Amino acid sequence: xxxxxxxxxxxxxxxxxxxxxxxxxDYEPLPILLxxxxxxxxxxxxxxxHQGRPLCLPSGRTLVSEGQFIVCPFHGASFALESxxxxxxxxxxxxxxxxxxxxxxxxxxxx
Length: 111
Fold this sequence. Notes:
Layout: E1 10-13, E2 21-24, E3 32-37, E4 40-45, E5 63-65, E6 69-71, E7 78-80, E8 86-88, E9 101-104, E10 107-110
């Protein structure tokens, strides 16, 4: 996707996310889901590969199961927090599209 954020773009703050947890970024050109597990951050395009729906509810609430899976609220596809790989449900082998990020002084920035 050509709308990937330029390196250094602040996408959110680590301390704003539950641990473990996920919440959409305010980055406009591309829907991005920010994910936290401990002091690490991951990010994915906020689109379930099953039917193209967001991985979060309209409120931004994102379902995280067992502290290790993002669960699509629409049809139950699940994805590993740390890799975006599909771990069950109707998405088959299609994983989430990663957005490279790093944590810098508490900010989650595009890498």
